[in-house]
Amino acid sequence: MKDETEALRRELVNEINSNRGEREQLEKEYGQVWDTQELSQDFDVKGFMAPFVVVKRKSDGVVGSLEFQHSPRYYFNFVEDK
After folding, report:
1. What angle do CA 13, 77, 29 make, to 5 degrees?
2. What is the Cα–Cα distance from 82 to 63, expressed in whole angstroms?
3. pLDDT tens, 21-80?
4. How many CB atoms lie within 10 A of CB 9?
5. Buried b (16+ CB within 10 A) or exposed e, 40-79
6. CA gap 35, 41 in Å, rounded
7. Does this model's pTM top 0.90?
8. Are 64 and 81 contacting, i.e. CB atoms less than 8 angstroms apart?
């Protein structure tokens, strides 16, 4: 099966990882930021398609997505599915 999003996702991965942010910078831009341990405390991960991860928030069962950068690995920009 052809992934229609692959080219766009590859472009986003390159953009995010060439402009990696430190935690403080990402928090200013996106609000809450999670490292890998914090992510596993707050969310159940349902799937990855870099630079996105689909998650289910443990506190209320809300499903959504986060973006992530590879190194340092931070997750940010939670968007609830509608």
Report:
1. 95
2. 9
3. 899 999 999 999 999 999 999 999 999 999 999 999 999 999 999 999 999 999 999 999
4. 14
5. eeebeeeeeeebbbbbeeeeeeeebbbbbbeeeebbbbbe
6. 10
7. no
8. yes
- Residues making up the chain, counted from first to last: 82
Give the integer Cα–Cα distance in Å for 13 and 15.
Answer: 5
Tell me which amino acid residue 52 is: F
The backbone torsions φ and ψ at residue 25, rounded to the nearest 5 degrees and listed phi first, read: -65, -45
Kindly list the domain boundaries of the chain, sorted by start residue: 6-80
Sign of the alpha-carbon dihedral angle for 34, 47, 78, 62: negative
Instruction: Return the DSSP state at 2.
Output: -
Provide the token pair at 65. 């997505």
Q: What is the rounded CA–CA span in Å between residue 32 and residue 75?
A: 9
